Amino acid sequence: MKKFVLATSAAAIVLSGCADMSQTQKTTGIGAGVGALAGAAIGSATGGNRSAIGTGAAVGALAGAAGGYLWSQRMENQKKQMEAATRGTGVAVTQTANNELKLAIPSDISFDTGRSAIKPNFSPILDQFASGLRNNPNADVRIIGHTDNTGTDAINNPLSIERAASTRDYLVARGVPAASIRIEGRGSREPIADNSTAAGRGQNRRVEIYVGERPQG
């Protein structure tokens, strides 16, 4: 029980020190602290055996540190590069709660209505994005295509997938490993604006790209 209290105190110290940490250190440190608690609990459940407690805490810390994606300096640099590359284009570049870099690309940049061919304005953005991905061997990429509600699902569902596939193929042609990219098509099921207006439909016809960095094994 004393070991568990000590582990709890240590984890509290880790968490209290996060104010002066970088985002990467916060992500890893918090995960490690929580994992250490879980590991100490495992050891306590074994009857307080010192070896079991130590092993449990170590395993728990590693599991906690490895949970989710990392927001590394490399990810921060890529976010800044993409913000610079997309400034004034209407593309939104954000960091998600799951530490993924997200690019939301509206239709006036990415695709013509009813088409899946990449527009010329979209190419420089993807070129810059591919450059960052080539330097990140631990990247997981998701590309999700969306449409407005004009037309039927029989048209919109495959069109949203084709748009995601076109984006993937462009990135692969520029050196991004195909195995690191997953694509999805959501059709018109996830609008972000009012489909009753032309401006709203333009926002809903979009592609979203997510990239997360896996912890190194």
Task: Give the helix/strand layout.
Elements: H1 2-16, H2 23-45, H3 50-65, H4 73-86, E1 92-95, E2 100-106, H5 107-110, H6 123-134, E3 139-145, H7 153-173, E4 181-185, H8 198-204, E5 206-213
Parallel strand pairs: 3-4
Antiparallel strand pairs: 1-2, 2-5, 3-5
Helix pairs in contact: 1-2, 2-3, 4-6, 6-7
Summarize this structure as a short list of keywords or feature phrases:
60s Ribosomal Protein L30, Chain: A; globular; 217 residues; alpha+beta; five-stranded mixed β-sheet; 8 helices; 2 domains
Describe this structure as you would to a colleague.
It is a single chain. This protein has 217 residues and is α+β, with helices and mostly antiparallel strands. The protein folds into two domains: 2-65, no CATH class; 73-213, 2-Layer Sandwich (60s Ribosomal Protein L30, Chain: A). The protein has eight helices and five strands, in the order ααααββααβαβαβ. It has helices at residues 2-16, 23-45, 50-65, 73-86, 107-110, 123-134, 153-173, 198-204, and strands at 92-95, 100-106, 139-145, 181-185, 206-213. A five-stranded mixed β-sheet has the order 1-2-5-3-4. Strand 3, helix 7 and strand 4 (181-185) form a beta-alpha-beta unit. Helix 1 (2-16) packs antiparallel against helix 2, helix 2 runs antiparallel to helix 3 and helix 4 (73-86) runs antiparallel to helix 6. It starts with a helix and ends with a strand. Residues 2-67 have low confidence and may be disordered.
